[in-house]
Specification:
alpha/beta; Rossmann fold; 9-stranded mixed β-sheet; two-stranded antiparallel ribbon
Length: 248
Amino acid sequence: MKVLVAVKRVIDFNVKPRVKMDGSGVDLMNVKMSMNPFDEIAVEEAIRLKEKGVVNEIVAVSIGPAKAQETLRTALAMGADRAILVQTDEEVEPLAVAKIIAKIAADEQPQVVILGKQAIDDDNNATGQMLAALLGWPQGTFASKVEISDSATVTREVDGGLETVKLQLPAVVTTDLRLNEPRYASLPNIMKAKSKPLATKSPADYGVDVARRLETLKVTEPTKRQAGIKVASVDELVEKLKGLGIAK
């Protein structure tokens, strides 16, 4: 069984993003970049399936600039077998990403495609669902538990609690935070990753137009929270709430 895992290069989650002076976007100059945390979970889950003997090959895919090779090398160091970089300097929207991954899936013929449920830079939470629709495959989104044999059983985190769905393979799975704890790549595996195959393609190789359909008008930082007010008693608190129209 082959698994395709999509990973994205994003601003490291420990870094506070800065907005460009002209408000045209987020400043990426000299900013630490890393693998999207949800995608790390996706890679870890694929590796665990391989360790169980369910999967025999893991192919990592990324769409982005040449530096996204670093992200793919991280996936290879964690345990992926080979990687494909679809190189473009354009900011690729979720539908175009889904179209490219669908083309790669048609070439690679995986039984499962695993993605993070969303990327922390745009929070769209759309690529996995779009991919499943394009492929015509069943999907298990927001997975907190995955079991795969002849079919896939996915426990999903939903508003009302947990929902379990059974999917015929091939299928698309998107990962939630509680699915697993990603491993750190060991130094020997980091060295081995340098010799693992990494193919470089372009969107044109898959016949996908990545021109943007949406226009960003302006990017601004969130308004700063105002300081709270201390009160000396419950009665004063109630009066303050009444004054704000919160309490009657």
